[in-house]
Amino acid sequence: MNINTTSTKKIDTKVLLSTLWVVVMINMAYADILSLHIPGAFDEVAKTSANTGAPIPQLMLVGAIMMEIPVAMIILSRVLKYGVNRWINIIAGIFTIAYIWGGMASYPHYIFIATVETLCLLLIIGFAWTWRNVEAM
């Protein structure tokens, strides 16, 4: 019996990026769901609205749009061609990190989940940055 211990199957970069975006999306949703159970959480949204001058529905719209980035990236990471795919993952990753920490809540669960999201996003950026199109070679 011949066992080849050096053969490992490499995960396709598109699949890897898409899977990491799934992890980011689930964590973003979970952080928001947990935050809803904290007394006074809505009061913080109201304070943010008062401080920024943005009505609460507009703040919710911004949150909804930002949540759609990971959702869209799940599909786009699988279907876009190499060059566009690399750059859109890098740009969306950076933009999403800025959103996560820019809208930061001080709740311990949020800080933990934001850290996990950031690590996943840094992996996305790193994999996209170092991704080489072997099909073109």
Oligomer: single chain
Beginning-to-end CA distance, first to last residue: 35 Å
* Rg (C-alpha, Å): 18 Å
Low-confidence stretches: none
Total count of helical runs of at least 4 residues: 5
Order of secondary-structure elements: HHHHH
Structural class: mainly alpha
Q: Average pLDDT value?
A: 87
Strand content: under 5%
Total domains:
1
> Helical amount among residues, as a percent range?
over 70%
DSSP strand count: 0
Shape: elongated
Q: Describe the largest sheet.
A: none
Outline the structure in words:
α1 packs antiparallel against α3 (about 55-80), α1 runs antiparallel to α5 (about 110-130) and α4 (about 80-100) packs antiparallel against α5. The longest helix is centred in the N-terminal third of the chain and has 24 residues, at about 15-35. The protein is built from 5 helices and no strands. The chain is elongated, with a radius of gyration of 18 Å. Helix content is about 75%, strand content about 0%. It has one domain (about 15-35, about 55-130). It is mainly alpha-helical and about 140 residues long.
Give a brief outline of the structure.
With 137 residues, the protein is mostly helical. It has five helices and no strands.
Provide tags for this entry.
single chain, 137 residues, mainly alpha, 5 helices, 0% strand, elongated
Topology:
Blueprint: H1 13-36, H2 41-52, H3 56-79, H4 82-102, H5 108-130
Helix pairs in contact: 1-3, 1-5, 3-4, 4-5
